[in-house]
Specification:
By secondary structure, this protein is of the alpha+beta class. The chain folds into two domains: 222 residues, Rhopdopsin 7-helix transmembrane proteins (Up-down Bundle); 143 residues, Alpha-Beta Plaits (2-Layer Sandwich), CATH 3.30.70. It is 66% helix and 8% strand. It has a five-stranded mixed beta sheet, sandwiched between helices. Strand 2 and strand 3 form a beta hairpin.
């Protein structure tokens, strides 16, 4: 009795750990609800733990119902885990595919219990089926092997976890002795299964949690570095890039400040929704018409900035003029022409961000004084 009690307690270790992970994934999703794949993994851990508990406690007591219920829970857990990983990469299976996997596995399981009863066939069917589902998911995620460190670790743990279903099942059945259905929990196969879940399953769960943490940090960084309205860089990120460029500067560098003319009038006349549309349209022009090496940001309100690497002041002025013309050509659903003014300055050998920003800002005001919808660069004569 004591030995049986110890085995029962040890059998509960893996499902208990999975329940802890289910709670961890659920809490992580609550913190960052955009990461939907965390819910898939919370469900996967809970379902797998429920399947193990069903077998450990022999509930339901009817052997056939127990086999079908535990099989359905295990299969659903594997599908949830696989689809969670695919969902993270934007490649989730459609529900029709998931149902196809589910019925393709459950129907033979039913057959090999109620029609041609064979425990060995059911074990091979279930374990090879789980392995095939996970391998199929892994083949759609090969780009993770070339991604950041957390992605690479996740990919290889997933691949090992998927592949181990095949040799583990074969070796434990071939050399583990006969399977006694009345004492299935004491068989070498069951113990090896629990060990693989405890080691590889927990490793996979930890890798997913680490990846989720990395994704949350990436989202925070993106929110910090990106203007939510226009999708351009934020002022903070723009300044970081300027400082970086100044530290390793060997080529000329220029800055243009852009301000939408009469923007307050747009907001007052047509509402803030129309003002937001104007800002998005101007941002799209700046991003679309600039060169790939140029850096575009929204500094705040209706003010934008463009950093021109490896660019002399005259070329920066010419690009700014093209941008001004493109903005003036915008066709927006308001009864007001949208224009912008530009101030351009270049970085000298001893300049820093503040000094060049002040000169570009002063040139922007000179462009405004010229009547707006104009470009003014330093050392440029005012008529």
């Amino acid at each position: 009795m004591e030995a049986a009690a110890v085995r029962s307690m040890l059998s509960l270790v893996a499902p208990s750990v999975l329940l802890v992970f289910a709670c961890a994934f659920a809490v992580a999703w609550f913190v960052e609800q955009r990461l939907r794949y965390l819910l898939y993994f919370a469900a996967a851990c809970a379902l797998f733990a429920a399947g193990a508990a069903s077998q450990i406690f022999k509930q339901p007591a009817n052997i056939g119902l127990n086999a079908m219920l535990s099989g359905a829970l295990y299969l659903s857990a594997v599908l949830a885990a696989a689809n969670g990983l695919l969902d993270r990469s934007g490649r989730a299976w459609h529900w029709q595919t998931l149902m196809g996997f589910w019925f393709a596995s459950m129907l033979p399981l039913w057959y090999f219990f109620y029609v041609d009863r064979s425990l060995i066939a059911r074990i091979y069917l279930q374990n090879f089926g789980y392995g095939l589902v996970l391998v199929a998911a892994t083949t759609r995620l090969t780009e993770l092997a070339r991604g950041k460190a957390a992605d690479r670790v996740l990919f290889w743990i997933l691949l090992i976890f998927a592949v181990q279903f095949f040799p583990r099942t074969y070796l434990t059945l071939a050399f583990g002795g006969p399977i006694d259905t009345r004492a299935f929990g004491t068989t070498f196969f069951w113990q090896a299964l629990q060990l693989s879940i405890a080691v590889l399953g927990v490793s996979l769960a930890l890798a997913v949690l680490a990846t989720a943490f990395s994704d949350i940090l990436e989202n925070v960084r993106t929110e910090r570095d990106t203007d939510s309205l226009t999708g351009l860089l934020s002022r903070r990120r723009f300044q970081e890039i300027v400082f970086s460029q100044l530290e390793r500067r060997k080529q000329p560098l220029a800055l243009a400040l852009c301000d939408v003319d009469h923007f307050k009038q747009v907001n007052d006349t047509y509402g803030h929704h129309a003002g937001d549309e104007v800002l998005r349209a101007v941002a799209a022009v700046l991003q679309g018409k600039c060169r790939k090496k140029d850096v575009v940001a929204r500094l705040g309100g209706e003010e934008f900035a463009v950093l021109f690497p490896d660019t002399m002041i005259q070329e920066a002025r010419e690009i700014s003029e093209r941008l001004r013309q493109a903005i003036a050509s915008l066709n927006l659903p308001i009864q007001q022409n949208v224009t912008a003014s530009f101030g351009v300055a270049s970085f000298g050998p001893h300049d820093n961000w503040e000094s060049v920003f002040r000169r570009a800002d002063a040139n922007l005001y000179r462009a405004k004084d010229l009547g707006r919808n104009a470009v003014h660069a330093e050392n440029e004569q005012v008529a």
